[in-house]
Design brief:
The chain is mainly alpha-helical. 47% of the residues lie in helices and 8% in strands. The chain is built from five helices and two strands, in the order E-E-H-H-H-H-H. The chain is elongated.
Length: 131
């Protein structure tokens, strides 16, 4: 038996559970249920969380296991924390994306090198205009 998908393969949004079925007695229950809080995490976030727990929260150990930088591990942890929030936290003030944010996103595979370079160039161009 396969694990139920938690996210839409088309758009990536969290899926609702609409039907449950008992293989033993052939009972089917239809309704609308939400996934558990951990099921709302992407497969990558779930894998990171399992590694984090097995490492007893030691970020340096997670860093070594994944072969990535400490800031990348911190960024992944922040991403999981954000996903576990009941409501996304609204920042007090919009935060400007930094060069390190972009480099960490590239290292984590969330951003292509080409897109990252474009963002860095845009950041640098914005800094030139404010001087």
């Amino acid at each position: 038996m396969y694990k139920a998908p938690s996210h839409c393969p088309t758009c990536g949004h969290v899926l609702d559970i609409r039907e449950l079925h008992c293989q033993e007695c052939d009972t089917t229950i239809r309704g609308r249920w939400s996934l558990g809080v951990f099921d709302r995490l992407t497969p990558d976030q779930q894998t990171f969380l399992r590694l984090f727990v097995r490492s007893r929260g030691n970020l340096s150990e997670v860093e070594r296991s994944l072969g990535v930088s400490y800031p990348t591990v911190r960024a992944k942890l922040e991403e999981v924390i954000e996903a576990l929030q009941d409501e996304p936290a609204a920042p007090d003030e919009p935060r400007q994306e930094s060069r390190d944010d972009i480099l960490n996103a590239i290292a984590a595979g969330r951003l292509s090198v080409e897109d990252g370079l474009q963002r860095i160039r845009a950041l640098e161009a914005g800094k030139e205009r404010t001087r």
